Amino acid sequence: MTDDGTPRRRADALKNREHLLQVAHDAFAESGTTSLNVIAKRAGVGAGTLYRHFPTREALILAVYQHDVQRLVDSVDAVLAEHAPLAAFRVWFHRLADYVRLKHGLGEALHTAAAQDAINETYAPVTAAVATLLEACVADGSVRPGLDPADVLLLMGFLWRVPGTDTGRAQADRLVDLVLDGIRTHPA
User: Is this entry keyworded Lipid metabolism (predicted)?
Assistant: First the structure.
């Protein structure tokens, strides 16, 4: 048992769950209408195993959503290690926008109370990731201090509203430049 009284998952059960989430992620990226039976077959497990982890299609879709968002959140340190802070900011937000645009089959599942709970649960980690990016930018002097990560996240929300086409990406790059001009450190 864990500290909060919920049963611990066995290591093999966690591995199965991770594998199922990755297979479902890939399947939903191909088609948001992929059946659970197809996902189970692709994962090399029986339908019972899939349903034991995810009793409904909505439960699987929302778990994939939460898993994907957590992977994006967890990627901040790697992006910062690979890029200068301001470039990392740009790269990470483009990745977030690409994901939000796809939503991997969320469709109707977005309009349920469970979906709102899942979205609300991912807000704090995403805002914390934005805070990490901003702190790195402040530390290297490229962004002014005192910015609220929630405000910056809201401001950057335009990224998932522009189309994922070449024209949309060009527009997104211009808009990111406008935002960065507004939050950069400017000489007095």
Answer: no
Quick one: fold of 62-183?
Tetracycline Repressor; domain 2 (1.10.357)
Contact criterion met (CB below 8 Å) for 149 and 134: yes
Span(s) in the chain for CATH 1.10.357.10: 62-183
CA 32 to CA 47: how far, in whole Å? 19
Residues 112-151: pLDDT tens digits? 777 778 888 889 999 999 999 999 999 999 999 999 999 9
Task: Kindly report, residue by residue over 28-53, the tens digit of the pLDDT.
Answer: 888 878 899 999 999 999 999 899 99
Sequence-separated (6 or more) residues with CB below 8 Å from residue 6: none
- CB neighbours of 85 closer than 8 A, spacing ≥ 6? 133, 136, 137, 139, 140, 142, 143
CATH class of 1-55: mainly alpha
57-71, 80-94, 105-119: segment of lowest average pLDDT:
105-119
